[in-house]
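Example S7 (structure tokens).
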């Protein structure tokens, strides 16, 4: 069974490895991804009619909304992008620019597919790279043998094999070689810097072609050249059209767009401020994309009708029922995420695969320090985090990060020079590190 064919139960189990609690949200996303697989099993005429059941996650900050969506995408190998609904209310973003999110999603998908295809051709690309490095290390130039000169040819062959052995042993990494490097187009990264992902994709392609393709002789070390040659070889071995085709398909059929802060564009505007161009305007802009439309990207047209949209928000100032009706209909699944309790904090500190405690212990292990947190210490940290959330501002599990940093600050500073390599953090130590701060409200507002 491939990752994309996970059953809902398996998806929830996998999410459980990273996220504590939030059962309802996990189930909802698990069903949503399974439904996509189910849809793809159906005859085309039926499948085309079935729209994804988009989800609204309702819950306070820092309880796992984004984390669930992100882990899910990872798990099922889906191109994933997170956008903030409020971004589209800013001047200059109003209008069709919401399509930019789909373009970004496609770019991500292309990157994913390129990476996968690189893995497929890696062995062959490594071989070819090695040959080209050897060509450069032993240029065919002046002392090239005459066809008849068998001895010279044999010597040359042996030299080449000797170089190969040295190359593989990593002995030639710093040697300089001459290499022809062609720069076909502006790198994608440059486009992003110029904000070109916002401009018309046709124009973008056009601009790219304006940059002349050039090949240049360059001096590089073997180390640098290996990287460059490997990339070049991969570009030659990978069928670009197929790569784009797969990426477009994957965007359409398994792409996930996470729209954060949906609550901020719902309902009436409560605060004062410049005239409200936004809110329902942004909702109207989002609507065609969520309902299904064709978006032009520089890799081709994308149909958005089967992309999964997961949106999130606290919905304290507004309610999902205050969204425009069409949008409500496109987000039929509503799940609430729970406030995290002190017990949840204990579990979050210890249980996830990437748990904070595990990370901290591993970090100090690099200094040969054996760090241990007693169960009482962990419970104390969870309690303090809970308290700080109550007294200051509720930032959910994010509070654990600031608490952890305060607790280990001194140990972390001294660890590199520590003589005693066994360090135990107990409840007293946690209290000592945190108590004054928590009692001094002003300090805690800055430090926790
Ligand atoms: N239930 C949870 N289990 C494990 N870790 C969690 C949980 N909730 C939050 N975290 C951790 O806290 C951090 C913040 O969580 P996340 O980004 O999901 O918050 P959010 O619900 O999206 O909040 P916001 O509304 O502010 O975007 C993440 O790094 C995540 O690891
Ligand atoms: Mg979030």
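Recovered sequence:
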């Amino acid at each position: 069974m491939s990752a994309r064919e996970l059953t809902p139960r398996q998806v929830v189990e996998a999410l459980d490895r990273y996220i504590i609690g939030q059962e309802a949200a996990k189930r909802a996303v698990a069903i949503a991804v399974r439904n996509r697989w189910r849809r793809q099993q159906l005859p085309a005429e039926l499948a085309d009619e079935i729209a994804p059941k988009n989800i609204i996650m309702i819950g306070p900050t820092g309880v796992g909304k984004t984390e669930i969506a992100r882990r899910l995408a990872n798990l099922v190998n889906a191109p994933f992008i997170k956008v903030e609904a409020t971004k589209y209310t800013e001047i200059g973003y109003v209008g069709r620019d919401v399509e930019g999110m789909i373009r970004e999603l496609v770019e991500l998908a292309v990157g994913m597919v390129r990476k996968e295809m690189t893995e497929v051709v890696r062995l062959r690309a490594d071989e070819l790279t090695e040959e080209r490095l050897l060509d450069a290390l032993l240029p065919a130039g002046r002392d090239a043998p005459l066809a008849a000169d068998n001895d010279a040819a044999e010597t040359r062959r042996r030299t080449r094999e000797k170089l190969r052995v040295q190359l593989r042993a990593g002995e030639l990494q710093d040697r300089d070689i001459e290499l022809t490097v062609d720069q076909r187009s502006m790198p994608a990264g440059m486009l992003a810097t110029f904000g070109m992902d916002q401009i018309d994709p046709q124009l973008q392609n056009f601009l790219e072609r304006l940059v002349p393709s050039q090949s240049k002789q360059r001096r590089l070390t073997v180390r640098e050249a290996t990287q460059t040659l490997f990339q070049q070889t991969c570009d030659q071995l990978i069928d670009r059209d197929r790569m784009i085709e797969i990426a477009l398909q994957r965007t359409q059929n398994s792409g996930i767009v996470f729209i954060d802060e949906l609550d901020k564009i719902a309902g009436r505007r409560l605060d004062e401020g410049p005239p409200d161009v936004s809110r329902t305007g942004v909702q109207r802009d989002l609507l065609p994309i969520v309902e299904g439309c064709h978006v032009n990207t520089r890799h081709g047209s994308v149909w958005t009708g089967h992309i999964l949209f997961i949106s999130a928000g606290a919905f304290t100032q507004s309610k999902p029922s205050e969204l425009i009706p069409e949008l409500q209909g496109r987000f039929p699944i509503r799940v609430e995420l729970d406030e995290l309790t002190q017990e949840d904090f204990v579990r979050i500190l210890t249980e996830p695969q990437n748990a904070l405690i595990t990370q901290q212990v591993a970090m100090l292990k690099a200094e040969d320090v054996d760090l241990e947190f007693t169960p009482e210490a962990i419970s104390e940290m969870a309690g303090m985090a809970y308290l700080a959330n109550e007294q200051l501002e509720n930032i959910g599990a994010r509070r654990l990060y600031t608490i952890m940093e305060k607790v280990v600050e001194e140990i972390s500073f001294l660890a590199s020079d520590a003589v005693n390599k066994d360090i135990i953090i107990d409840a007293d130590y946690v209290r000592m590190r945190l108590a004054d701060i928590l009692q001094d409200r002003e300090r805690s507002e800055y430090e926790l």
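Notes on this example. The mean pLDDT is 86.
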